[in-house]
């Protein structure tokens, strides 16, 4: 893929369900080499937008291109071979009693850890991916016995087995304690510095936007508030508007630190 090649293009996309707008006139374009965070409160439209990009939901209006393919004119099953997807919704479908390394290897074949016997080369690649994520020590442990943070690393490594051109990571830190969250974010930071063409990281929390994220898109009530370089988008004014509260913002180690101003809580 050429540098600056467009990976995702969303043109005036709207989604209506039972007369209710879930997305309204979304316009967004991402290019290879950019790593994006999709940020917003509950109900902002993040999940709906993900479903559009993955070809799981069709817009009521507008057009979507993913890696040059116009959705609706291309087999989404073929398209998904170039997209890695990590979500807690996948966790329950994965075989619980296989070793972590075998589950990672299953990502090459899009299985849940059953039915396919990985080759020696598959297992070597799976081991290397776990090592890249600082998770080599869990390779031979059953998936069922892993902590939530370790499971996230296995799912990320599994998604990378097929060498995706786009890696979508949907709220991986949900339910994690502080140290586990930082381990996952550190692993993703290392990944962003590697060869993955593009990350799309979805979160409710600005503090999870790690240094490797270059661009941010903020959604509120189905509308795109802002999109662009993270330092331009993540401002006190924009975050206060997105979350409906007055917040303070400062940067530490290239990560945003956001606090709600107490007087805005008292006014609610």
TrEMBL record:
Is the Ion transport keyword given for this protein? Answer: no
As one GO molecular function, the record gives: ATP binding
Question: Where's the ABC transporter domain?
Answer: 8-246
Q: Which domain of life is it from?
A: Bacteria
Keyword annotations: ATP-binding, Nucleotide-binding, Transport
Q: Does the keyword Glycoprotein apply?
A: no
Give the matching Gene3D superfamilies: P-loop containing nucleotide triphosphate hydrolases
SMART domains attached here? AAA
PANTHER family reported for this sequence: METAL TRANSPORT SYSTEM ATP-BINDING PROTEIN TM_0124-RELATED
Tell me the protein's name. ABC transporter domain-containing protein
Record organism: Sulfoacidibacillus thermotolerans (Acidibacillus sulfuroxidans)
